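Table S2 (continued). Query chain:
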Amino acid sequence: MFYKPKQAIHTPISRRKFLELGGAGATMLGAGSLAVGLNSTIMSTRVQAASSEEAKWRQYAGSKLVFLSENTPPSFAIRENIQSFYEKTGIEVEILTDDLPVVQQKAGIDLRSGKSDYTLNYVQDKPIGAPFADFYVDLSTMFGDDTLPQDPEGYGDGAWFENFLSACGRFYSEDKIIALPYDAAVACTFYRQDLFEAHTKDFEAEYGYRLEFNEETTWKQVLDIAKFFKAMKEGGADVPYGYAQHQGSFAWTTQLDIQRMMFSHGQWIDFPIDDKLGSKRPGPTNWGDEQSVLMLEKFKELGDASHPDNLANGTLELNTVYQSGNIAMQVQYHEFAASVENPETSVASGGRTAYAPCPKGDADWNLTGGPLVNGTNCGIGGIGINANASEDMQRAAYLFAIWSTSNQIQYDVLAGLGGTPTRKSVLEREDVKAAQQRPTNMPNALTFDAVYNHGIKDPHFVLGPKIPEANEYHSILASETQQMLSGQKSPAETAAAMKEQFDFLNDV
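Corresponding output:
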């Protein structure tokens, strides 16, 4: 979702080039082919329910599909393995990759214009799925179709990690599945265990408890830790700052950053809607209530105690700050463990970093009366099919969707490029079980206990808000909270400004 692998590529094609290639490409393929989209083609051979499994996989041999995806580990792992898909199906797949905001823009134009230049899309839960859900194929209509191959593990909720199918597949309705879970970035805590152990006596003398981190560590204690390291740093000690937030220019991750703290205290959410399904009419926002003002006050305190470049640290930059040894703790997405554990680029590698669930809510900061939880959010990227495509093109794309989200490909992503699996069965492999302890050749597996066994499970998991105006919502929240962190507005003024803008955004 957020990790950008080395040698990321994007293959652009102009409309003029498409017009030059489209007709010629179809001619070269001969009778029975149809050129569509960005040099996509479709050829089909009729199959029956009684046809062999091989025939079902090869019924669209000679076709070409275009897949528009974010530059994430699964996309690059699939690119490395694409020859095996071609050998299995006879279908060529061109994978175009780019940063998520660019993918969102290109996909949105294609979907809303009625075109299908990109037959397959990377459906990131809120930025792409929430605004464009109505433009994707309902994949459940192909589940169990006996003229198509089917994954032996199936596609129900139990095949994926808890909440994953709802995160990227369900929008505004239980009945429709628009995407299959393809990659995952789930928040958890990365902390410098070596530094915590080295300074625990001084910390305990000042704060009255040990300097350690576990699933019971609260956000109030995170603030204590941030203040402790900052004071030592400013006093001349050779230590890093204690903490830094996700700010920078990527509005969605700024929103996710504050959402974790908010939800931890009484499961506070922005709108009174079903958090996993979302709503096209979310109604009046909860921003502006007592709890939201208090949380903004604490978020500002934490910002003031953080690394001095706090406002410039987006997700990628924050991880670089951690890897370079300039902060002792970060709440980060679990796919980044692979880079943190790389001894060639990270001073936090070699057993210095430990992983735990996100911080828990603190009773002193909870005005809601609701439960205190380890608020954990994520980005679950799905793979969906453009509903503008022809029926045969959709069926051919389905073959790629189920192949790319299969156990074997999910395992290859984990083992090869440090990705993060979405199918539960991947964790049942003996080498993956072993990799969750040091020494490991799958460093992201070190996070699996914190993420898969704790954070993504209810009651800790928070997803939304899934609303059609999700991207506008992210931008407003990021802009307002960053103004607050820089001292331009008070927390109360910020909460009031967000309420006014969110209610206007949603026609309240």
